[in-house]
Amino acid sequence: MAKIQAIRGMNDILPDQTPLWQYIEASLSRVLNAYGYHEIRMPIVEQTELFRRTIGEVTDIVEKEMYTFEDRNGDSLTLRPEGTAGCVRAGEQHGLLFNQIQRLWYTGPMFRHERPQKGRYRQFHQVGVECFGMSGPDIDAELLLMTARIWRVLGVAGEVRLELNTLGSAEDRARYRDALVDYLEARRDQLDEDSQRRLATNPLRILDSKVPETQSLLEDAPALWDFIGDDSRSHFEQLRMLLDQAGINYHVNPRLVRGLDYYGRTVFEWVTDSLGAQGTVCAGGRYDGLVEQLGGRSTPAIGFAMGMERLVLLLETIGTVPDSVNADADLYVLAMGEGAQGTAMGVAEQLRDALPERVVISHCGGGSFKSQMKKADRSGARLALIIGENEIANDEVAVKDLGSADQQQVPRSRLVETCRNLLS
Ligand code: ATP
Ligand code: MG
Fold first, then answer.
1. Phi-psi sector, 173: left (phi>0), alpha (psi -120 to 50), beta
2. Is 128 touching ligand 1 by the criterion CB < 6 Å?
């Protein structure tokens, strides 16, 4: 019978990979908590309508990437393709947003039906941040300072660069959209097929088309910046000043528009050249209109999401993973002969009580002395603790240093102290 395989683009994260994942997750949550951000956990499934209304009907995600299904009640549900919509829904539902300041973060799997390739999967993981109730450029700057710190903590600061833009207000964008459509409509036959389609549905997305002919056509197109109103201009200038003061380097990219409808004013991406085509490791921006659009009262908001798989790939590629991430076992406890197993388990428990930061493995499954020692060696442990009939009779443990092969008989009463010294 054919064996059942995982779904294409949905990966198992295997035991030899999870230490790196845990290291990155722990580093991220440490920095986020240190800035006063609080974790929120939302369901993985939401009503389809939520994503249609927030991400936008004519975006790639809603048009062709969502995992949507009918549940047994006939309701249309969707596996979340991103976290912002659910976070706003939860905040609104529980009264966390109106007239309040919130700094929130979340992590977990997201689902998009894309073509799987390196750095692009159908189930992937994000760490996301959403801030509510702050309209000024100071919180925009805080988010960028915080991400810059995350890169330093993970040792990838030299590998990522910041791209920054402003999309202005909804009115600014509407006026710009008209001008851009006028310009491109007159040159329609020179546009690639995708962009021709977007001309009617989502013309701003044409700006980040990867097709060279389309890009050169855009050289002389009207520029978004010329349509940005005074308020948004000054918001952006102030953000730039704060970043300059903080010593954060960035590149203003007037073509950066982002793929979701809800963004306005500040948008940004942290990009690396080390991962090929899937180079954006973190992306976000301001979405001041979204809460109101979902039926709440007008609440300024800004957020970003990092792609965990891309961060993992980046750390693997440039090799900044500390040795301690792949820590082996410290102690391996062997039981020799009938009746020794109970005592050996007692010794292991005693060591776990006294040395909670150490990894203590109890040998299970019996076997000869030779085969148990082989397992001890393979575990990477520094010390093997051997308990046989003699040791039980004398209330001691044989402690073998697996590096030097030195072995000594140690009374139970001095076992913890001896192990602590040998390991330090
Ligand atoms: P891209 O341009 O790479 O498709 P996006 O604009 O669709 O990204 P966002 O929706 O802003 O991405 O998601 C934020 C981050 O999540 C991305 O910068 C990326 O790191 C990660 N990400 C998005 N889609 C995927 C995916 N299919 N597989 C792995 N990571 C992803
Ligand atoms: Mg995408």
1. alpha
2. no
